[in-house]
Amino acid sequence: MAAANSFGKAFIVTTFGESHGRCVGTLIDGCPAGLPLFEGDIQVELDKRVPRKPEITSGRIEKDVVEILSGVFEGHTTGAPICMLVWNREAVSSEYAVIKNLPRPGHADYPAHVKYRGFNDYRGGGRFSGRITVSLVMAGAVAKKLLQLFGVEVLAYTKAIGSVEMKETPTLEQIRKETYKNPVRCPDQAYAELMEKAIIEARREGDSLGGIVECIALNVPVGVGEPVFDALDADIAKAIFAVPAVKGVEFGAGFKVAAMKGSESNDPYATRDGKVITLTNNAGGVLGGLSNGMPIVVRVAIKPTPSIAKKQKTINLSELKDATLQVEGRHDPCIVPKAVPAIESMVAITITDHMIRAGIIPKVLARER
Amino acid sequence: MAAANSFGKAFIVTTFGESHGRCVGTLIDGCPAGLPLFEGDIQVELDKRVPRKPEITSGRIEKDVVEILSGVFEGHTTGAPICMLVWNREAVSSEYAVIKNLPRPGHADYPAHVKYRGFNDYRGGGRFSGRITVSLVMAGAVAKKLLQLFGVEVLAYTKAIGSVEMKETPTLEQIRKETYKNPVRCPDQAYAELMEKAIIEARREGDSLGGIVECIALNVPVGVGEPVFDALDADIAKAIFAVPAVKGVEFGAGFKVAAMKGSESNDPYATRDGKVITLTNNAGGVLGGLSNGMPIVVRVAIKPTPSIAKKQKTINLSELKDATLQVEGRHDPCIVPKAVPAIESMVAITITDHMIRAGIIPKVLARER
Amino acid sequence: MAAANSFGKAFIVTTFGESHGRCVGTLIDGCPAGLPLFEGDIQVELDKRVPRKPEITSGRIEKDVVEILSGVFEGHTTGAPICMLVWNREAVSSEYAVIKNLPRPGHADYPAHVKYRGFNDYRGGGRFSGRITVSLVMAGAVAKKLLQLFGVEVLAYTKAIGSVEMKETPTLEQIRKETYKNPVRCPDQAYAELMEKAIIEARREGDSLGGIVECIALNVPVGVGEPVFDALDADIAKAIFAVPAVKGVEFGAGFKVAAMKGSESNDPYATRDGKVITLTNNAGGVLGGLSNGMPIVVRVAIKPTPSIAKKQKTINLSELKDATLQVEGRHDPCIVPKAVPAIESMVAITITDHMIRAGIIPKVLARER
Amino acid sequence: MAAANSFGKAFIVTTFGESHGRCVGTLIDGCPAGLPLFEGDIQVELDKRVPRKPEITSGRIEKDVVEILSGVFEGHTTGAPICMLVWNREAVSSEYAVIKNLPRPGHADYPAHVKYRGFNDYRGGGRFSGRITVSLVMAGAVAKKLLQLFGVEVLAYTKAIGSVEMKETPTLEQIRKETYKNPVRCPDQAYAELMEKAIIEARREGDSLGGIVECIALNVPVGVGEPVFDALDADIAKAIFAVPAVKGVEFGAGFKVAAMKGSESNDPYATRDGKVITLTNNAGGVLGGLSNGMPIVVRVAIKPTPSIAKKQKTINLSELKDATLQVEGRHDPCIVPKAVPAIESMVAITITDHMIRAGIIPKVLARER
Lengths: 369, 369, 369, 369
Fold this sequence. Notes:
4 copies of one chain form a homotetramer. By secondary structure, the first copy, chain A, is an alpha+beta fold. The first copy, chain A, has helices at residues 39-49, 109-116, 133-149, 172-178, 189-204, 232-240, 262-265, 336-357; strands at residues 6-7, 12-17, 23-29, 66-68, 72-73, 76-77, 82-87, 153-161, 164-165, 211-218, 246-251, 269-272, 275-278, 286-287, 290-291, 296-302, 311-316, 321-326. In chain A, a hairpin with a 2-residue loop joins β5 (72-73) and β6 (76-77). The first copy, chain A, is globular, with a radius of gyration of 21 Å. Chain A starts with 5 loop residues before the first strand and ends in a 12-residue tail after the last helix.
């Protein structure tokens, strides 16, 4: 059972393709029929993935153009599987020959080599590359289009890069309007500038930075999630770990709950305009694995890009002895900005899957064509 | 697709039962044939679940006695599904009548009521009760027995309760020998005493505490995990969220990676006695969703028990208006000690599932009976 | 991935238990909340399984009494998993010692021994016993109770035993009222007598008989089934093969379509009272894997019970040489009557699963409790 | 849970594409790493699908050219998902406008229209078209290449077309060498000529024919199959129903077992050269859902192509009243020849899936690259 390239039970996303192969693609099975869908809907989201600022990204800036191959007919989804892909154009594989035997610290190179006994496509990290997030974002675009019809909105933004961390909580309006105005995807332009500087500085040193992404899902109906194992937070956590470089996930007050008392962490209920709300949101919108109607708030720790220009200790896999490595190739000095739409996508995909499972999103969206 | 009471793809654990129903049970499908298994193997683990110290637990101390109903023949597993259960004996349901309409803040009461429209068994939290961890621990006992044959060991312990947090990293020997010598499951007896005091103090105030549990898996072979979606860390994270009250999960350096540089967080490779190791373990044993041969280290944030004796704001569900609630019944002032074996079990179950998927654990354990 | 004891994707039935173990059980995950359910509802169906006429059954007539262990609260399903079981009481295992090394022709003994390397519980066939149909019938009882609410009715009956085959097609009324009036489950009492005689005759010779069961599902809404792989006929066929001794499955005109012309086999459409019908039903109610609103008609070939009193050629597994075997123990001379409710159950389970998947059966059955 | 375009649990085949869309494709997740694979391996099997004889096929003869998009690197599978497709070139969609409101009897048009409320791509049958078998054959080609390494061979051939049925059982040699020498895929050239004539005759009448395909799998190891629900025969049956127009499936003696006695249908065991065999094969190689080492023999009933030139009774969907229809477009007068490689593929896919599940086919095929 190595087969593990699908996520979801009702809105099933399967990804394929490699960093330096012919394409990266995604296949959605279970999308309801009747959703208006055009390549432009996907393209808009794809375009958010790559900050077009050379100083803070890898030299490889592809114009990723999506093509829908199936499942859409006369501008609407049909209920059949939707296959979409982006052809790879700019890959320069020669730079990667060196890593075949010298695994990069912090990368999957070594365990992947052992697992697949050398048959994996190691070029550019192959299936373990950040480029795979193209597949996630394409699927996320469809999920977000669906969620929109049901009033659900998913927003992610950069909260910290390296030691630069936003202290204030941004407003929703700020997140919606400001996040994509800068290449680091931070909704506060002052912090954004500091973050950008930190990245440029790290790059100059041949080093890299990590950070924290926060994602918020608004208007998720009460009771979404399927206990005990397919709890909403459980599935969101799992989904987010599909984004490369994630090392931690927390909801609401997160790790801070450890030092709180029950009387502090419990969110008291109240009614507002005939609706049930909680006065605080330490739970991050999830109780017992079920959405409780409050915003779902999840924070994600992203490690610094492992590919750095500095000399590092590694081993030579063919001779099994110590070695040193200086990674060439074009690498992002900070993967956090690219992680923002990928995390947003995975959260949207998970909520979509669960809203279909809960019967809230129907199999066919319109009464009749 | 509400069906969500199974976890795993090869070693599939399905749980059933409610806090105040007839029993809590677990059904394992996919356990290899030929594993020596007796009820005593399960009982040993079950007994670890309940700290037998009335001051820090709920008044309900059941002697949970496991019965194996199927899948074992002449002292060995047969390859058929293993059904096990513990009969409930001590439940006092009358205390729960009040919460039917007054959802407890921090509990699943409210979203569960909405989701199941009042049909859920609300007594003692029903399926959302901490008692459900009995099912997890029974399944974990089988997983641990299997893993033992392959040299894999899984150890969990309490790292923090409330504001008492162990500063030093305990040795493996310490964790193995000291953890269960005190009711809080902390491998350092001095910290354990402080933690116990903190719990008793919180209880006296009618309040409750949370904490942090760390779990370590040793000797997991390199290459376990199935990218891209069934990554080992992704599945461990999902598994752990099945334990009630979990609000965050992090691996290795966890959220600290956000402020590290690549040159700090990358774990350099080296060889030791012909084996590949890393000189640090910021990755927590997982790279690209695959085990890398180093200890798998995961930390879990547990919120304070939501059931507290203090008066709390809630709503009346039948009239949909504000109300106050003072929770009666017997409740743990801190669920962390009970979470320790549950988290250990979920990690063991996930690794077992993946080692079977990877073909490392075979379908039949012995050549011939 | 040996785990294979679950069927369905939305209404998931998992069975456990062995012929001579402590019990046979079933666990349903995904049953909607709000279904009135009592043990009596299950018992009625279980009682249909065993024709209480010693001449045509095995000597082992257990009074199978169902117990519901979970998932039901105050007379309604809760949405949590429903675990049910029947304790085994009458098993006489000593008779089976002989078959440990002498596999019975026509039984799973030999391939099971190879697969599980001797660890399988061989007593009475273990997991391969006809007794396992108790689990199927318990789950089927819940499915039928659910389907009833949506007007769907599933009816099975014996069409042939040995060379005695009903020539006329029975009316629905006849099937509903007459089937269980005789021990062979044939809706025509004249044929039933002939079938009974044939069984008694075969038993006298130390031999056994097979037969044909027909199953009809009425009022299944149009469009149930999920192409391309979870086609309704595909899943019904798979489900039926879980009943021991099945060797063939056909829908509508079945194998007869091979010799028909398109102009004969195509079922012409017409409207009746504003409803679309077909004037014939060669399709057996399924087109392109989707229900078309006509009765779903499926016929099943059942082989003669392999356990016969006659001397048979076999092999000695421990010495791997030719041997002879005369099967002792209590065996049904014809398993067809017991297969009738089991096939009915598997068809009902499959349709229930698909009606939940299609969103026709909701997650919660009533608006509010 | 409409998502249903995947088959298998370890070797997971997902298909996509429509008859008149941009392409038909297949995605294999779980193929072991290290299998030598070239587009030519797939092309060979694809070319078998279309009998290049205009008299007996639809006018639409595409040169289907496969492209592998992912999962193969330097001539070997990598363990990553393999996406393959064939671009559609020759579709003439205009002919299908008429059927949008006039469902063709015997086709999925009507239930599909109801299910998807008019959003399904109806052109050429869309997802319900025989063209979808291109996806099955591409996946089957990979499965067969894998099985070959383990000595397993899967062979299918036409046994009957209309009333012309082979009376003799062909030898394996005959099936291997003669089947594809004629456009009807019958291993006996005399019968083949009669079948061809029958098809031409039916076509002349504006009518169509069905038939019977037999498929044999050789050298499947003993013990393949996962009871109780993923029995080998159960999964093969389900798999075969994915081929359009299938109405029945039987194993070994099939429906004939109904009239046999146990002493006739039981296959006696014997040893030959230290191997266990059965002296007859009424079981068709499967006992209790497990392979028993004998050839797996399955027969499949295929209905006549529903698209016929004769005038037929139908209904007008928009006005819901009776109508008549005369199907235009290019249609096969007999789909049996195209079903042969599709059925062979589905049997090969199922056995591959189960041999991986049983651990007989490993995750990586070679020790090291």
